[in-house]
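We now fix the convention by which a protein and its fold are recorded. Think of the row as the fold of the chain written in a discrete alphabet. Here is one such record, which you should read through line by line.
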Amino acid sequence: MKHLRLLRFVAVGAAAGLALAACGTSDGGGGGGGSSRATPPAMDALSSLGDGEGEVNILAWAGYAEDGSTDPAVDWVTPFEQKTGCTANVQVADTSDSMFEKMGTGDFDVVSASGDSSLRMIYAGKVAPVNTDLLTNYGDVPDFQKMQAWNSVGGTAYGMPHGWGAQLLGYRTDKVDPAPDSWSVVFEPDSPYAGKITDYDSPTDGIAAAAVYLMSTQPDLKITNPYALDKDQFDAAVALLTAQQPQVSSYWASYADAQKALENGSTEVGSTWQIIINLAKGDAAPVESVLPKEGATGWADTWMVDAKSPHPNCAYEWMNWVTNPDVQAQIAEWFGEAPANTKACALTTDPAHCDTFHADDESYFSKIWFWSTPQSDCLDGRTDVKCIPYAEWGKAWSSVKNG
């Protein structure tokens, strides 16, 4: 697993915007950033692709724009520069919040936004619509990833899908018996794994994960979208997390921490990513993961163009390059995710990679509630109530963690 070595030391911030908005279908929730705006500011997409401007400023998650400096064998930036003449200036982001703050200024041309920041950017006018006719690989992305609540508004596309993954339930096979199929092992007060439970440290994911569980276990709450919670629904999710808190041994914010905890046994069950399980297995740890029967949260990242991009042609050149099948194959294995362009599946070093990450499995995709930033205008379409916006989620999450 040499190609995944980066993941042993990349620490992703607690708010790391792995992006999940609605349940994999276009009728699910969306996500603005606490704004109550009904529509984004009007602006036009690039009408035609012209000559490159000579450079492109890229704001990306670690592992998405590798130039050989991390590993000489991992480099898709240099070939891009050689082919297009666009010098790539890459800045690695640590959180979705920092991405939101940095976009819309003209300092960057393109960003790999996750769902908990992408619609905030759209509604704030920080990113522009995209002309999908100019995205050379758009046709190779399965329809179930397109025009979703985290990458479009009102039938207008705002980005090029990049990759996605689910927030899974991980567990130690030598400690957890029988094998779990439900989030009940982490949320119920009588869990036999109390003191050995872990949660991902994110307001968006943490509260939404509780809401996903409540959708199944407390149907009277009538939650239809875990990112669209009115006061009663929100209070119920926070109450579940508050009751769980004494049983939680750790809230993890990096791959390395989660992997280490599983390997040394300080964690026996809890929220994880497939890549963490893969790495732990690579170290011979007795671990497995499952998508619980209640469903799960997850991320779907999108390349988006800054509304004030000084180099829009090179921005499109980058989006086209980074979603080519061969480049997608490299990124998917290096980062550990399902590639958006499923033509990459025939090119991965591991022929089973796309099967492991369910890259072309629409049924699996539909079980995931992809991260999105909650806003006061309910993302499930309700107009008779106001929903709890992101700022309140952050305060509540901090309160839960601190007991």
About this structure: The two ends are 39 Å apart (CA to CA).
